[in-house]
């Protein structure tokens, strides 16, 4: 049905609205995009078809599993796939409940992928590292437990850059995931497996983790919706720590509504995580007004700030064009657009890398080969430690452990860690001020679209620079939603571009509401990759 | 030497976790390869109890030499808190439990597990901080102290670094009378909260070691003293007073043998008059107060001897172990520069903020502390010996207080407790809370003797019955018909009968052998079954003996 790439209805979008932005470059190349109806919530569709007895949970599971089997050899988004009989058994149980008119959880029959750095008691949880090869934790992460309690079926564990350290999945200790839009390209990272799996409809939704953009950047690269909640909104218990003060579990889905429904399921205070918030959880689903009920200016009066520093040299002009078209679209919806400047914006990146590396050097110290994971035989304790870690960790992880250890060393602490914390405070203040004058802030989710596998592998600084759009949000602990807003043509490929919306702390509600309206009113795009083909 | 490192099972998703195994090489984890000290004789072995401090003089170091030097002693004490669960998880802890039976993902440091602070730890820290007259940090935080060791599952210890919960306090002690007595005040630098590590079990014959994580995550308070102590006795008394304080507060059992209270001593010497400090040496493995005292005295002598022989450069910054068997300290590890623990704020635990109400609530619930108790007892007119004995054990002190609360005579109550009751407890190996005697009945007993209802001798008999079986003084007196005879005519009758029955002795007495008075008194007392009031008896007896009929 959607296999042919058609010329989209670009006419409306190409009548670019002149807005006061620097670097305003309008892309005049018509970008070929598939056209389709608006993205709909997979979760609601599954629920509707189950309750109406149109189909069964087993049928739905089979469809996903067969697509997963078909696409996985090319994509490699999963490090572990649940045995089919186990998945079907859970689906049968849901069908039985439907038969008996028993209560169904909000995620009943929804196949979910879980990033492999989130603990599952019935599947290995390696965090993409050889040092945890075959390691199965004795407990479920709180978020996983909540997914299951809500009826979701965990279909498998998705690939990632080792311990979440990377932006491509190339730093995975096991495999590189391909981008469903172009198999020669990276899916982004570190939650690349989770994003690719949702994009290719190997599962309906997935959990990722976001320390510096690891949910949002792959969402952008794969053309799916990625929600990074406020720090503390979702329990980190069972999330294999990379940088504890920045790590957040996030949701990926093919529509804004899906990420909201998943967030609803996994949010909340957890007595096992002292940093999880006791903030009340609003009913996120109530934000999703069906398209037909929207008036002509559904976002009238909404103040949107465009972060000037995200539209500068170094950012792909096509990405900037996409953002500008999104700005026009928001304006059409009734938003008031203004430009916001963050003088501290560029400081966020080095501060992030110091803080994240410092915390990771400490968090990853426990992988010493003594109690679990990879252990190398040695005749001295220091050799046991050294060899187990040398063999178990990949080079990106080692690089960051070394940087972090250095930054925390006596004599350097003040120059690095302490100063980075000061920058963090500055970033938080800037955001607070900007969010007093604006309801949401917007920026591209990444400075470019998905690049080629291997393209930046040997240039860590270029790779780190790709995080410029996202890391500040983690430093400030704010929620952000990334949703596809357009396409860029690269050679023979058509690659999705993501729009990032940043909200005030614990105001995911506004992001979901705006995101949903944006998505429902965006004309002419379908974000289903060609790989998925006709069976979807 | 090739050794193999192995573990039982790599991962285990079940309830029971495997203990981890790994090899060691000749006591690899302790670098105790033997003594490097040959120039010192070993000290004669002394055995003494936990609470008594025995002085020692070092044979080869004449007092004369020691008098030219001054020792500077500071102590770091770790107190294990007796909270019902560990510091950051819900596991209970009991000393001596089967290895790895009280562990969970959190205290095992499994990937993804997070620490959640046990509020009792803060409460106990505040209690101790207040008891040690410290200034509390209303906003403190936790930090990570990072180092690799198999007993430290996360490879960092959650501790407090630059903002400890309490700082700048002091502790008052009274030195035991047998060591010359005297009052001292020692500064407390800081009190901070942290977690304990696990334990390594080194198999005697095997070439591997095992890790027991039962103790990992058990809450500790570290108390750092100012370098205010000068002798082994002072240091031991400081430690003993800390033990008393934590026991009074009920925050720890303070048991040194079980490691619930551990002392690391820092010690340096300098010639009297010198301003700058000498090189500091740390002593570990001090399992009793007497070993604290003796290890310090040994170390002072060792350092003084080196210094006086011009070998001060051989006093190096190092950690030494106290060897109880050999009664000497030996090198454990030399310090190679300062170790860098790369402290940084613990991101998993939010800051600890205390409110005034919270602190006030704890302050008002504090018990009477040992120092206050001692001063109160002193003001009651008790001797320092009595004061120290009674205030040493909170349970004894409470027993004493409860006894005198019933208006019992203070001195008599002290004497009974320190005499017959203490002896009985020692013989039967019972604590004061385990004996059947209640403070109320002890008060009753004292009053009965004082009021003349029973004699002191009978009182003693009743006491043992009360301690062993319980019951009331009144009940026993009635039951055994032990009420003292104070009726003059009744005693007169008995005296008359005894005199009549012993005409020969009476004759002798009247002939001048007056010491026979005791014989008559004994006979009368026997006739009264011990119940005659002795004073009255003697009075009547004398009258009758000296009155010719």
Automatic annotation (TrEMBL), chain A:
It comes from the Eukaryota. SUPFAM superfamilies: Amidase signature (AS) enzymes. The keyword Ligase applies. GO terms for molecular function: ATP binding; glutaminyl-tRNA synthase (glutamine-hydrolyzing) activity; hydrolase activity, acting on carbon-nitrogen (but not peptide) bonds, in linear amides. The active site is at residues 115, 190, 214. Belongs to the amidase family. GatA subfamily. This is Glutamyl-tRNA(Gln) amidotransferase subunit A, chloroplastic/mitochondrial. The gene is LOC113743579.
From TrEMBL, chain B:
SUPFAM superfamilies: GatB/YqeY motif, Glutamine synthetase/guanido kinase. GO terms for biological process: glutaminyl-tRNAGln biosynthesis via transamidation; mitochondrial translation. GO terms for molecular function: ATP binding; glutaminyl-tRNA synthase (glutamine-hydrolyzing) activity. Its EC number is 6.3.5.-. InterPro entries: Asn/Gln-tRNA_amidoTrfase_suB/E (IPR017959), Asn/Gln-tRNA_Trfase_suB/E_cat (IPR006075), Asn/Gln_amidotransferase (IPR018027), Asn/Gln_tRNA_amidoTrase-B-like (IPR003789), GatB (IPR004413), GatB_Yqey_C_2 (IPR023168), Gln-tRNA_amidoTrfase_suB_CS (IPR017958), Gln_synth/guanido_kin_cat_dom (IPR014746). It is found in: Mitochondrion; Plastid, Chloroplast. Residues 398-545 form the Asn/Gln amidotransferase domain. It catalyses: L-glutamyl-tRNA(Gln) + L-glutamine + ATP + H2O = L-glutaminyl-tRNA(Gln) + L-glutamate + ADP + phosphate + H(+). GO terms for cellular component: chloroplast; glutamyl-tRNA(Gln) amidotransferase complex; mitochondrion. Allows the formation of correctly charged Gln-tRNA(Gln) through the transamidation of misacylated Glu-tRNA(Gln) in chloroplasts and mitochondria. The reaction takes place in the presence of glutamine and ATP through an activated gamma-phospho-Glu-tRNA(Gln). Belongs to the GatB/GatE family. GatB subfamily. Subunit of the heterotrimeric GatCAB amidotransferase (AdT) complex, composed of A, B and C subunits. This is Glutamyl-tRNA(Gln) amidotransferase subunit B, chloroplastic/mitochondrial. The lineage of its organism: Eukaryota, Viridiplantae, Streptophyta, Embryophyta, Tracheophyta. The gene is LOC113734365.
